[in-house]
Write a structure and sequence with these properties.
GO terms for molecular function: NAD(P)H dehydrogenase (quinone) activity; nucleotide binding; quinone binding; sulfide:quinone oxidoreductase activity. It contains 10 helices and 22 strands. It has 423 residues and is an alpha/beta fold. The chain folds into 2 domains: 191 residues, FAD/NAD(P)-binding domain, CATH 3.50.50; 131 residues, FAD/NAD(P)-binding domain (3-Layer(bba) Sandwich).
Length: 423
Amino acid sequence: MAHVVIIGASTAGLPAAYELKAALGGQHRVSVVSNTPIFHFVPSNPWVAVGWRTKQQISFDLLPSLAAKAIEFYDSGVKTIHAQDNQLTLGDESTLEYDYLIVATGPKLAFDEIEGLGPKGFTESICTVGHAEDAYVSWQDFIKDPGPIVVGAVQGASCFGPAYEFAMIMNRALRKAKVRHQVPMTFVTPEPYIGHMGLAGVGDSKTLFESEFRKNDIKWITQARVKSVESGKMLVEQVDDQAETIKTHQLPFKYSMMIPAFTGVDCVANLGGDAVNPRGFLKVDEYQRNLVYPNIFGTGVCIAIPPVEATALPVGAPKTGYMIESMTKTAVENIAASIEGRELKAQASLNAICLADLGHTGAAFVAAPQLPPRNVAWMKKGRWVQWGKTAFEKYFLFKMKKGIPEPALENWVLKLLGINKLK
């Protein structure tokens, strides 16, 4: 009997657990280790931060759902991965042996890389549901006494979509509260242009987002290096294509949300050597298998992916939801093949699908594959995207709570669109 352990129980880890159990059946053991007892739908965090959702609406307890599928669950997190010994030290100092390991931890939020950044500093975050709840508390106070907003992402970030979403969601929420006229808004980003999103743009993303920002009175600063944040003020350097400072901005704010750069979580980063890159992300091959430890696989935000292109400031490549599903399916199929003594063949297609709520409308893009050059690259907008994202939120939460690994209807619809998880 093989024992497969999955570290992480979010967008990558939980589907991996269900798919593995479906693939391996009762003759093999599957365990999940998480640092939280709940699952929550991360794409809904911007809604939580303005009070359009609550934590209870977008989350559920993991233990009952996993137990129903005969999957073991530990919520103490992982302190150390002893890769040479195929063993984990958990957060409660207990140990767990494994034959195969899937690393699906997500990232560590590198707020400490910029003075004053983050919830312990002077800016809000929507990276976790807890952060989003805290951001909503601050938002309620802000609505009573509005002023300037600074929103965006810092250098080294790789998750730009939520920053664009939250800027437009705040714009809509302010209009509904009838205080938008009291709130100058500035979008700050290391991207070389608006709509780059770490993907070198998708379809007409540059034109679309520039148009939306202009129509909604949102100013922007691109190729922006955030130097420091203090109470009510952000120091930003704007650079040229050689990363030389050409202008310094001191941006006042009463409310700010900035996406931080990511690094690998400690237990992954501490693998060291050739197992991880300098930022602590797990290195994997085309089979999602680690380059040093062949029984360790990785999926999701925790893996190393090079930037799409060279930019003046560090701009990482995002790992979008469908891309994560693609990596997860690859890891699952290749672990099953390895256990059964078959050749590893599955490779992720790395196609990307994104649905973004822009407050008064929505934007959707498809990039197939995610990294250019692409076979498919388009972006559209309309209210239908908002409805689609809301429907997907409900669908995905239902699917994860019930432990449904891969609905046939979902796969059929995506195949009709020419989108596949595997090459």
